[in-house]
Structures are given as structure tokens and as C-alpha cells.
Design goal:
Elements lengths: L1 H15 L9 E3 L6 E3 H6 L15 H8 L6 E2 L18 H12 L5 E8 L2 E8 L10 H17 L3 E7 L7 H5 L1 H14 L4 E9 L1 H4 L8 E4 L10 H8 L10 H6 L5 E2 L5 H12 L25
Parallel strand pairs: 5-6, 6-7, 7-8, 8-9
Antiparallel strand pairs: 1-2, 3-4, 4-5
Helix pairs in contact: 5-7
């Protein structure tokens, strides 16, 4: 029995056992619970193919879909002090930063880039909610200022994609000071007559909403995005009343005049180009290019 138990049975079990499937091949939609294949989800810009729920998307993936050919150039952002307050709660602040950098592969919570969208040159900035909740620290303030300065230098519009949980508590008052700093940067664009368009994604809350995220010349939001200063749970606990259905969601804010548009992620690229070209007085974007005509054959030389 030892030979059957120790050799034959494990061999048979190994032949018929289920193969392990890597966990990163499937993503569960947080809205409807559908399991989505990772390639299908990426091709659909992280929008659920079953319920159309807009899931989180990284700044790099967003820029790859936004810019022509997925080609863009990163704009350098000045580095702030690493840990100005020597902050420590359950972990030290530098430890939290290293964990976020390892998880996201990014240096900080905002990425700034320049490039062309349907031959329309722009400067763009995007926040990554996966990086410490997209919190606004000194680096994010520097990034918004660097984006505005680069837009001024190149005389291009600035498009900003917001996704944040508010100010970064580990930087205290220095984080809150980014609100007036970024407001001044936006004002520089307005004085120069350059368009500033904000795309609010889920979620955009706290001090980010109270500063640069709500100062755009045009305010666009993705469907069902939560946009607020204080969240609905905090408000309900404060006023002890039930809030309206969909309160502080993009569609509710559009109905009440806080937004200009609510646009599906797959239609956002074309809409941004249309708006930016209208604001800058450019003709409509070229959707396709004809091949250059072949040179005409030279006429035969006449004999004398």
C-alpha cells in the first residue's frame, strides 16, 4: 500500500489537479461584481464592460491613451524636503512613502507631461489615488506649479486630472499651504489667457476640491465621480439628516451648476480637443491624414 499511497496516488492527483491561475489576470468590478479579464479591461480604459463603472486608472495609462501614439515627455518637478515634520504615526512617513512607491512604481502622487492630442499641443497633470490616496503634499503643489510654468513657457493649455483624498496629514500646515500656492499658479494661466481645463475623477475631495480642482475654465467630470469637500458620511453625521440620492456625485453637481460636463472616459479625448481648440481659436482637429500624392512623372523632352 505504501507504493500506491506514496507514488501512484500523488501522480494521478498531479495530472488532474487544477492549475493555479495568477491573481492579476482578473479584476473584480467594485460596482457590479463582474470578473473582468485584465486585457479586456485595459483595452476599455478601465471601464467595466458590464455596468460601465469607471474604475481607477493610473496617470501613465491615462496619458498613454490620451496623447497621440501614447507618446509624451515628462516634465521635471522640483523635489521638496523628504520628511519636514519628522512625522510618525503607526509608521514613519518615509516608510509610508517607500511602500507607496513600491506599490505604484511612481515617485509621487502626481505626474506631469507634455505632448500632443490629435495634433493639439498641451501640458497635462494627473493624480494617482493609489499613491497615499492621491494626497496633496508639497510635491503635488510643486507639480501643479511646474505644470503651469511649463504651459506658460510653451504657451499651451493645461489639462489637469484630479483624484485625491485631500491634504497629506503627514506634512501638516505645509500641505495646507499648497492650496494658495496652486491657486496662484492657476491665476498665472488665467492672466496669460491660457485655458485651464480640469477633469475631476473619482474621488476628488478635501483641500484639492477647495483649490485647483474647482478653478478650471471648464469643469468636466467622469460619470458617478464623488466630488466634495467633506464626504457624505461626515455631513450626515453632522446635520443628522439623510442626504438626497446621488448627493455629491458628478451627475448631481452637473444638475446644480457646479460642473460643465459629465463625459465618458472613452469620449473624453475628443471632447478635450474640441474644447481646447475652441478656447484657443484653432480650427477643428484633423481626424485622419491623406497620403502624400506621388510625384507626377516628368514630361518627355521634345525632339528638336
Amino acid at each position: 500500500m505504501n507504493w500506491i499511497t506514496n507514488y501512484v496516488r500523488p501522480k494521478i492527483n498531479s495530472l488532474f489537479s487544477r492549475r493555479e491561475v495568477p491573481e492579476n489576470l482578473w479584476t473584480k468590478c467594485t460596482e457590479c461584481g463582474t470578473m473582468l479579464f485584465h486585457r479586456e479591461l485595459a483595452d476599455n480604459l478601465n471601464v467595466c464592460t458590464n455596468c460601465d463603472h469607471h474604475m481607477a486608472i493610473t496617470p501613465r495609462a491615462r496619458f498613454a491613451a490620451l496623447f497621440d501614439g501614447g507618446v509624451f515627455t515628462e516634465v521635471k518637478v522640483p523635489e521638496p524636503l523628504a520628511d519636514p515634520l519628522q512625522f510618525k504615526d503607526q509608521k514613519k512617513y518615509p516608510e509610508r512613502m517607500k511602500a507607496a512607491q513600491k506599490a505604484t512604481g511612481e515617485k509621487e502622487a502626481m505626474l506631469v507631461a507634455e505632448g500632443e492630442v490629435l495634433r493639439t499641443p498641451i501640458v497635462a497633470a494627473a493624480q494617482d489615488f493609489a499613491f497615499m490616496g492621491g494626497s496633496m503634499g508639497m510635491y503635488v503643489g510643486n507639480a501643479v506649479i511646474a505644470a503651469a510654468q511649463r504651459a506658460l513657457e510653451l504657451k499651451r493649455p493645461l489639462v489637469l486630472f484630479s483624484a485625491a483624498g485631500g491634504a497629506r496629514m503627514q506634512e501638516g500646515i505645509l500641505s495646507l499651504m499648497q492650496m494658495p500656492r496652486t491657486t496662484v499658479a492657476v491665476q498665472m494661466l488665467k492672466e496669460a489667457g491660457l485655458p485651464y481645463v480640469v477633469v475631476l475623477t473619482h474621488p476628488t475631495t478635501g483641500g484639492v476640491t477647495a483649490s485647483y480642482a474647482m478653478l478650471g475654465d471648464v469643469q468636466i467630470a467622469e460619470p458617478n465621480a464623488l466630488i466634495c469637500f467633506a464626504g457624505p458620511r461626515v455631513i450626515e453625521q453632522t446635520i443628522r439628516e439623510k442626504l438626497p440620492e446621488g448627493f455629491q456625485r458628478a451627475e448631481y453637481l452637473l444638475d446644480h451648476g457646479m460642473l460643465d460636463r459629465v463625459t465618458h472616459r472613452k469620449a473624453l479625448r475628443d471632447e478635450l480637443v474640441t474644447i481646447l481648440r475652441l478656447l484657443t481659436g484653432q480650427p477643428p482637429a484633423i481626424r485622419g491624414e491623406l497620403a502624400q500624392p506621388a510625384p507626377e512623372p516628368a514630361a518627355p523632352a521634345e525632339s528638336a
